[in-house]
Batch of 2 targets.
Target 1
Amino acid sequence: MILPKFQYVQPTTLKEACSFLDQCDGEAAILAGGTDLMIGLRRRLRKPAYVVGLKNLQGLDYILKDDAGALHIGALASLTSVKKSALIAQEYPALAEAVELVAVPPIRHVATVGGSLSLDTRCIYYNQSEFWRKARPDCLKLGGDVCHVVEKGRRCLAVYQGDLAPILVAMGAQVKIVSAEAERTIPLAQFFTGNGERPNILQPNELLAEVILPKRPGRTANAYEKLRVREGMDFPLAGVAVSLTVNGSGEIARATLVLSAVGAAPVEVAEAATIIVGKRTSDDLLEAVAQTMFEKAHPAGNLVMDPQYRRSMVRVLTKRAIRKSLQAVGGN
Amino acid sequence: MEQVPVILNINGREECLTIPPHKTLLEVLRNDLNLTGAKNGCEDGSCGTCTVLLDGSPVRSCLLLAVEVQGREITTIEGLSDGEKMHPVQQAFIDYGAVQCGYCSPGMILTAKAIVESAPSLTEAEVRKAIAGNLCRCTGYTKIVEAVLAVSSQKQATS
């Protein structure tokens, strides 16, 4: 199936790219790795007048550590470069592991960190060809007024299925967003809107430029557990990311738990974390944490697996992620 | 429709074309250059039949615009053999019975070539992980994995 027609522009600097986006007045799509946009174009989910290709934009694929020990990852760093990075293996090995859960190697060779974070939300009724969608009226996400998941639904239930965001949120990541006129740095958790129709806060003239990770505190480990049908390729059908800091007595000094792929954004579940902070973990406590995560998860029937099963698996993923982190940090 | 000039480096040859920007690399390979080894399968990057090597790494040619990959080295299955002499991976696929209908084979062989060349030795698990992005409906993968392991061992033995 051929793609819809568009005008192609290829900026060589970030400044040029921002300038283009400004001029295109909302009519442009950003083509980084292309592993999401190209499919969206082929399916006519998006029909931009302009495509801004970033494959030749230099200087945005770095992975560096600054003097304060914080990590800076350029938005155009490929997932494979993250997986292979000696710096990330040393500072944040769990991030390299999470990256390896994304799709398959040929996708990871071109897919970018920025692209993963700004991945559009997904639904089995939305991510279909134009031909398939013609049999039904346009849904909410397409600008219509029905939802095919919930009869008389007024809120889009499309799901955020990126695999990097959950663990990056758990690790306290920030993102730098640039436009022709300004730049801002915000916590990654605030990048997501929870709105299925508009999943993140990027304006049409803005580009996600960098991810910043704080220096990893001592005695801290992170983990991401993903539910999917196959052992490769598939998007997550439920995901839990955990970040734990253990103190000298083996108690949890700090914990962050993030629930993902069951709603329109990855969400930090503070109520789950407070159950274990200040304590040594036990099977009972882990059950309580898992139950809290379960209660916060409300998957709908809009991905390929039964939502009840996906919801039940949140308990399992939570316990696995916590145990994996504890093992990594040398805790109980 | 606006046409743009592109210069593509394919199998070591420079190909100069004038194409509309919305053409994928796969379409250019098959329709403009008659390099029909790369196939159109799933159209969404999940099957691997369109796989080509970009600067030595396997990528999906159906998810790349031709205009995007100028100045990069593109290798298709047609670029693997040396005249009448097959590449060791191609030969192994034949010797080990790793080809049935052949539809997955171009993509599978290119992916195999890339992994064999990038690792001094390979375990079965590593091979399976590397070819996870190339689906085969005929063989059940057993012979494919055997063929790749054989080439890897052979390479180890002669190095």
Target 2
Amino acid sequence: MPQKGRTLAERILAKKALKDIVVPGEIVTVQPDYVLSHDNSSAIIKGFKKMGAKNVFDPERIVIVLDHVVPAAAETHALSHKEIRQFVSEQGIKHFYDINRGICHQVFVEEGFARPGYVVVGSDSHTTTYGAMGTFSVGIGRTETASVWALGEIWLRVPESFKFTLKGKFKPWVGAKDLALHILGKIGADGAIYKSIEFVGPLADEMSVSDRMVLANLSAEMGAKNGIFYPNKAVKEFLYERGIEDIEIFEPEPDATYEMEMEFDVSQLDPLVAMPHSVDNVKRVDEVRGIRVDQVLIGTCTNGRLEDLEIAAKILKGRKVARGVRLLVFPASYPIFLEALRKGYIETFIDCGGVVMNPGCGPCLGGHEGVLAPSEVCLSTANRNFKGRMGCNTAEIYLSNPAVAAASAITGYITNPNEVI
Amino acid sequence: MKLVGRVWKYGDNVNTDQIFPGKYTYTITDPAEMAKHAMEDLDPDFAKNVQKGDIIVAGKNFGCGSSREQAVTALKVAGISTIIADSFARIYFRNLINEGVLALTIPGFSNMVEKGDKIEIDLDNGKVIAKGKTFDFPPLLPKMQEILQAGGLIEYVKKRLEKAL
């Protein structure tokens, strides 16, 4: 048995590498439980073929979700989708989700692929999202994904871990997004480069799956290899509801070694925004109140879940989107869309003047469905505000939680929700 | 092996959208075309003037953001042989090695050189020579060296699959 406690990253990687103990810096070769990819699967297929590979390592452990530009916006996208469907059929890939399912990270969790103790790699930087469920999940590139398809294994460097203790209670209209932005403002966009962030503490224990997903998702923006939580009651219930009962429950080992420890009390946290053009350029909404917006985007793999739509609908109900402002709403998946429809949120969005779009990435990466014109300003609930990100390099992107986004859609400028409620 | 190249210098947190804009990710598939848009939103002169063998020297967290590998392909096809940074974003670092592009982490090096400087990289001895000064870099992980020596991950896997037959 090991002499001292291990971090969650060390425990999972040791288990997958069939070792008692692994130490930061060590290189381990592991067989991932699942490999995720999306529209970029067409490029992965090309790499896979160039490698001379004939068959994927296991057609049941590859998950492909079309979400980035769905439905196809141009012939190039249509062709790429077609190539993916053909490959899926040839290889007998079991877990394929076409354009009618939602954003890959949301779908992956909803389908129960993210489980405590699993190792998942994905050809998307926000693959870190599954850390919410206690999964060690990391983003990789296209060629690397092709290599995992071919070989069924990947080498990983065991990361040093940071321990972030979360506590306190959020004020109204403040949530996980604000906490993530607060952490980003403190540690910077390279603050956790190569590290595993372990989120612990009373607030982490209480957090919903959705809130955990926000923090794990934004761990990528901190430069982290992954962000991970110990499975809590919400995670167990989420999996039980999907008929998944055979799960390994990890408890923290108190004497584990962390490279850095920080504590975050959310009780005094105010709604925050990330200013153009970097996610760590964080200010309080009240400091920047009044900045005019042309477009408001509610959705994405960061904040397009039912709880986010509920918050937005509460603020927007019976009100109107300001003249000259475009409100775009993208539910993160079809189950979320349907539930929002049943609960009346979709009606609220349409009544107030919003445009409700199909589940998918939308304009987040500048692909389609609401890209920006020169000098326009967008307030988005996404995770990235890089220059040019939403299709135009003179446009400006601000990031916030869904409550601030909804309030700002009503006034037409960046607004604290307390001002309109 | 020694490499000599001309420096393009950039700051901290250069992200993948600046290196290769997201709007092109699913419309441009030809590597030569990707190279024409390299660094488009950061340095419009880059794609026009870059030459084969040039070296990028950057600050911390180079390549942060998306996992999109075109951000490596675009620079590689444009002629970049090596990127030296104070630190790299991790997916980008792996993508560089997987595409067969040399990536060296030398904290503080970016303060020592200017755009247009000629620098020399002595791979065998782990040294970079710039302005008459020598900077050491630690060897890459053996696994990364194997991938680089194979000419990238595609060739590396190809050889492994051939051996397995």
